[in-house]
Each structure stands twice: as structure tokens, then as C-alpha cells.
Amino acid sequence: MKYNEIKEHDFVLDYDSGFSGEYFDISEPATGKIFGTVRGASIEETKKIISSCKHAQPDWAATTFEYRAAILRRFAQALGHHCEMIHAWNARECGSIRPKSEWELQACIEQAYTAANLAQAPNGELYPSTMPGRKNMRVKVPVGLVGVIAPWNFPLLLSLRAILPALALGNTVVLKPDPQSFFTGGVIISELMAEAGLPENVLRLIPGGAEPGQTIVEHPDTGMIAFTGSTAVGRAIAQQCAGTFKKTSLELGGNNAFIVMADADIESASSCAAWGSFLHQGQICMQSGRHIVHESIADKYVEALAARANQLVTGNPFTEQCHLGPLINAQQAEKVRTLIEESVAMGAEIVTGGTIDTQLVSPTVLKNVSSDMPVFQQEIFGPVAPVVTFKTEQEAIALANDTTLGLSASIHTADSARGEYLATFINAGMVHINDQTVNNEYHIPFGGLKDSGDSGRIGGPVNLDEFTHTKWISVMNQGVQYPF
Ligand code: NAD
């Protein structure tokens, strides 16, 4: 590895990116410690890398599927082999507790094997023709160079869910992870891909923030942008890509409804609620962010959820066993404080939690919430569960749809058939009955509606279309004679 071992307590980063752009810190959110700095790529350096990767793409696409699959399988093995190092980075750089990091790593290993199989999937179809003697083929060809821009919350997974299928299908990739998770979502991937035998310039890592990100989006040599992150940045990327008709895969924010009907099992609903709202400190796009609960059971539900919240331990996931680690940065902790304070000023009541110690936020349950409060209107990305009540099914659906976002939702009811029926009225890309909103099975197409994305899907069989272009090739055995 080109960097030293973060497992040492008094770790000081020793890493030279080789670039000459702006410096950014590599830090530990749980302690505020800065391990060192990394130099980002300048605009000129970013353009140079894009050119090299564009140049390398035809040779990579011309390799056999067995060759590409073998590299992806070796990469999967390398992830497993380096698991302790990966967990240490995920805890220290991103504030991930061990079970979250373990789930994330295993999902990446499985996806690497899935992508290896994707390399041998049928890459086209035959169609009949109105012209006698003509063979019509739909051929799926690589897009070319894919720019992958990823966030910090599940850094390994959200980079790899695009990189792996893109590579399997013959694309080259430039990867720009978030600077806050540069090692977990960037350096580790690029180093282990090299260890697995990926040829030069098939995947290149670009360090830095918005500036190199913009260059990747704007550059004519990137044929596709696979972006996961905020709706604001995703919208700007969509607008820029529309100008050149560049392909996009945009996975954006969420503000997800968690509906509890009058006949729901409160034990199970409150367990799902605690998981959906507090896992990874609520920093998940699919977080159960708005609890919409029938008024007849709201008191019992709030009591059960608060009891679960009170049992959770907040701490430093690298040095102690805890359920919740720190929020990623001070601004995010401040944003959560403001959302709570403004909502309390409008009449919300803190049932439990509400304490913020630097970046450690205690799991918080709010009641007497109304739909005009900031905590209901905005994506929280912190461990806060706001509860609103409803009287009728129609009201519950209206509350669930009272958002510009549409990623995930869930409905708790003893009548699962009714739940399935109600799911059809919820404007979200994913709806789970009697479960919580944070669900990701890598073999199932994933994505949102409304401002949660560009309506594309990622994962499973759709990757075959997502990371390729369609080409119609027709063949006549001999030349055709037309009337003139
Ligand atoms: P962000 O949009 O600020 O940053 C995401 C990435 O984009 C980073 O790598 C960042 O450096 C880069 N970036 C920032 N400005 C850019 C620009 N102008 N051009 C190009 N790249 C730019 O995201 P964030 O706020 O740090 O991440 C959290 C958000 O991501 C939340 O809204 C969350 O819901 C969303 N998210 C969505 C999913 C999903 O699958 N739908 C998954 C995880 C996170």
C-alpha cells in the first residue's frame, strides 16, 4: 500500500497523491483529529487523467470477458483479505460502527462477483426484419469513459456500485470520491484494483472536491456521469449534462415516509423505526425521516420508540462499542441542531435526545410535529425521528407525498395486502411493507422518483443497460438495389 497503517492509535498520514491542486484534510470525525493533508488534482491534471482513461478504453473493451471477470474476482478477494484495514478506515475516517462497515464490505464483495458475471451476460439481441435476408442486431456497447462521483456516507459501496458494472462492461472509469472519505471510498479501491491486476488508466482516482468534479462533468471525453449525492449538486449536473446529451445516473437525496397504521404491531414498528432513523447516525439517503403515525396509537408508538432510543450508546466507533458514531462534520451537526431548534420553536416537543456534543448527536425523538416544520420538510441526515399523526388513510398518503423527494417509504399494518395496495399511491421509488426504509439488496434495481434522482435505476439486471449504449447493426448478405 502507498500509505501507512491507520490501525495505529497515533496514526499520522504519510501519503503523496502526486497532484498539485488544493490541499484537503483527512480527519477523524469522532475526535476532530487531523491525520494529515492530501493534495487534490488541478483542473489541468484532471483533464490529463480523463484523456489517458479515454485513450485506454478501446483496449480495455477489447479484452475478453474472462479477463475482466478474473480481475473483478481477484478484487473481491483483495477486499476480503484487507478487511481489517478497511474497517479501521471506515470507522476513523467516516465514523462507521463495525457492523455497518462489515455489511458495506460484504455488499461490495458480493457486487464484485456479480459484476464478474455481468461481463459474460448476453450483450445484444436479434430482431426480425421487414427486409428479406437482413439480420438485425441490437448490440450493447460500452458508453466509453464513466465519471463516478461519490459521497462519504457509504463510501466504499457507493463508489463501487457504479465502478464494478462499468468496468465489467468494458468502460474505463475516473473516480472522484468525497474528500471526507478519500481513503475509504477512493484510495483503497484504486490500490486494490491495481493489486488485482487492473491495467493502467482503466480506473484512475481523482482527489479533490467540487472543482475536479465539475471538470469531470463538463469534459467532452466523459460519456456518462454516475453521481450519488445531494439533490442540489445532482440537479446542477443534470442541467450540465443535458447541454451535451451526456448519459447520467443520478442517485440523490431522500426524505422518507414511515407510515404506521392503527392496526400495526408497535413492537415491530418501533424496532424498524429505531433502525431506520438511527442507523449510521441517520446519515443515509433512505433514512426513515418522517414518522406518520395513526393518532390512536401515537402515544404508545412514541413511548416504544423513545425507549429504544434511550438504550442506544453514542461514541467513537474506533475505540469503543457503540450504536451511533459521530456525524461526518461540524456543519452537519449544526444543521441538525438548527432543524431541531426551529421545529421546537414552532411547537415540536423533544421526547428524548436532542443533545449535541461536538459531532455526537444523541438519538432524538420529536412529537407534536406538523408538516410545515423544517424537521418534516427537509432531509435531516442526523439521528432524529419526528412523529406526525394522521386520522385517515388519505391523510397518511397525503403526508407521505408532501415532499419534493421520492426515494423510499414504508407502511406498517397487520393487513399486508392493504399495505401493498396503499404502496401504489406513494410517490417513492421503493416501498417496503412492515419493514423500514433503509433497504438495499444489490441485485434489485435501486433508485427514486421526483427529486431523488433522474428516474434511472442502478443494480441487478438493469446495470446491463445503465452502463452501455444501444447500437443497431444490420447486415445484408449482399448489396440492396433501391429504385433510384
Ligand atoms: P454532495 O452532493 O455535496 O457531494 C457528493 C459528491 O459530489 C462529492 O464527491 C462532492 O465532492 C461532489 N461534488 C460537490 N459539488 C460538486 C459539483 N459542483 N460538481 C461535481 N461534483 C461535486 O453530497 P453530500 O451532501 O455530501 O452527501 C449527502 C447527500 O447524498 C444526501 O442528500 C443523501 O441523501 C445523498 N445520497 C443519496 C444516495 C442515493 O443512493 N440516492 C446515497 C447516499 C447519499
The main sheet orders its strands as 12-15-16-11-10-18-19
**Overall CATH class of the largest domain:** Alpha Beta
Secondary structure tally, helices: 15
The termini sit apart by: 67 Å
Could you outline the blueprint of secondary structure elements for this entry?
Elements: E1 23-28, E2 33-39, H1 43-61, H2 65-81, H3 83-94, H4 98-118, E3 124-127, E4 134-142, E5 145-149, H5 155-168, E6 172-176, H6 183-195, E7 203-205, H7 210-218, E8 224-228, H8 231-244, E9 247-251, E10 256-260, H9 266-278, E11 288-294, H10 298-310, H11 330-345, E12 349-352, E13 356-357, E14 360-361, E15 364-367, H12 374-377, E16 384-390, H13 393-400, E17 405-406, E18 408-412, H14 416-423, E19 430-433, E20 449-450, H15 463-466, E21 468-476
Parallel strand pairs: 5-6, 5-8, 6-7, 8-9, 10-11, 10-18, 11-16, 15-16, 18-19
Antiparallel strand pairs: 1-2, 3-4, 4-21, 12-15, 13-14, 17-20
Helix pairs in contact: 1-7, 2-4, 3-4, 4-5, 5-6, 9-10
The structure holds nicotinamide-adenine-dinucleotide.
Nicotinamide-adenine-dinucleotide binds near residues 177, 253 and 381.
Key features of this structure:
binds nicotinamide-adenine-dinucleotide, about 475 residues, alpha/beta, 15 helices, seven-stranded mixed beta sheet, single chain, Aldehyde Dehydrogenase, Chain A, domain 1, 2 domains, 21 strands, Aldehyde Dehydrogenase, Chain A, domain 2
